[in-house]
Amino acid sequence: MSTSADQRFGSLWWLVMLFGAAVLAVGAFFVASPHETLSTFTVIAGILLLVDGVMAIVASIFGRGEGRGLIALIGVLGAIAGLVLIKKPFDTLIAFVLIFGVWLIVAGTVRFVAAFGEPEGRAGNIAIAVLDVIAGIVILSWPAPSLATLAVIIGIVLMFRGVLWMVAGWQLRGAAHELDSDLTAHPAT
Fold first, then answer.
1. pTM score, two decimals?
2. What pLDDT score does 65 carry?
3. What is the pLDDT of residues 3-39, one digit of tens each?
4. Taking the domains of the chain in order of start, what are their residue ranges?
């Protein structure tokens, strides 16, 4: 990626942090109000899956490393699952648990494998991957619990992911400032 493209991508650090704050807020909503209408949960989860899918696709385009294809695949699957949940929220309530549980396991597994191809941020990617897989297994193992319990589990996962997105945005901000400083100190000839 060229330095100009790095600068443009780095300048979007605030967007990554904003997405993280939104995910954190939605997670807190899930934990604080688990008895809200079921279709609202489904639509919110659909929107988050859609946005997360699009962000994963963008990350696979601009990212480096061997796991970009896997991240793009997860992005496409997440976007499709999100669209299904948004389009048919009431009809998909029964399938919601299965869709979300399977998505967490697949996304976590792919993120875990992809983390070893990208040395930067490896620990954070592994942490989110393990959390996703564990949450997916718990959700699929006990599909009968009340949706309120599921909402709390999803909320905790979303809050953790939101914090990690915000940390990634902050790190991107630092990298952008470092790149700007390097370019100012050593202008191209």
1. 0.53
2. 74
3. 666 666 667 888 989 999 999 998 898 888 876 656 6
4. 3-176
What amino acid occupies position 65? G
Rounded-to-integer distance, Cα 98 and Cα 40, Å = 17
Q: How far is CA 54 from the centre of its chain?
A: 10
Q: 63 by DSSP, 3-state: which? A: coil
Q: 């963008």: which residue's tokens?
A: 58
* Contacts with 80 (C-beta within 8 Å, 6 or more apart), sequence order: 53
HSE-CB at 165 with a 13 A cutoff on CA atoms is 26
Q: Which residues contact 19 (CB under 8 A, 6 or more apart)?
A: 51, 55, 165, 169
The pLDDT assigned to 5 comes to 62
Q: What percent of the chain has pLDDT over 90?
A: 18
Rounded CA separation 161/156 (Å): 9
| Token pair belonging to 37 | 């209408």
CA-closest candidate to residue 44, choices 100, 110, 3, 4: 100
Q: Give the C-alpha distances (Å, rounded to integers) separating 170 from 33, 66, 75, 145.
A: 29, 24, 22, 37
User: In which residue are the tokens 């990626």 written?
Assistant: 1
pLDDT tens column, 116-135: 887 777 888 899 899 999 98
